[in-house]
């Protein structure tokens, strides 16, 4: 089941975040997005197994974060989240989704490429310890 995240989902989302990223977002960042239509969670048997945060920046849809619990990876959860983000972007008349991904994170880059994203640029030292690859997908 996919739905808008609420504040009660934050502990599970933070757990996934901590398992997924070397420099994870803190809980207060997720609390600022609670009940926001672009903060989506995937729930299975009452357990949060993935999430995405799609925000609007300068009239563009920006995928700020997406992750799946390690035990549920490679099962289509993130792909389903991307599809819903695409629908949200389209419903709000955005023509593309943009994201940044670590240059060192080749697995994530391959995932995005396989889901219709294209490399559109890079940002040197976007992350403290890495450059960012900018990717976009038309919706």
Layout of secondary structure:
Layout lengths: L1 E3 L5 H11 L6 H7 L5 E6 L2 E11 L2 E9 L8 H15 L4 E7 L3 H9 L3 E10 L2 E9 L1
Parallel strand pairs: 4-5
Antiparallel strand pairs: 1-2, 2-3, 3-4, 5-7, 6-7
Query: Considering DSSP H and I runs of 4 or more, what fraction of the residues is helical?
Result: 25-40%
The poorly predicted ranges are: none
| CATH architecture designation | 3-Layer(aba) Sandwich
* CATH class label: Alpha Beta
Number of domains: 1
Mean pLDDT across all amino acids: 92
What distance lies between the first and last C-alpha atoms, to the nearest angstrom?
A: 23 Å
Pattern of helices and strands: EHHEEEHEHEE
- The number of strands is 7
CATH superfamily: Gcn5-related N-acetyltransferase (GNAT)
Explain what this protein looks like in three dimensions.
It is a single chain. The chain contains 4 helices and 7 strands. The protein has helices spanning about 10-20, 25-35, 75-90, 105-115; strands at about 1-5, 40-45, 45-55, 60-70, 95-100, 120-125, 130-139. The model has no long low-confidence stretch (mean pLDDT about 90). The protein is of the alpha+beta class and about 140 residues long. The protein has a single domain (about 1-139), classed as 3-Layer(aba) Sandwich (Aminopeptidase), CATH 3.40.630. It is globular. Strands 1-2-3-4-5-7-6 form a 7-stranded mixed β-sheet.
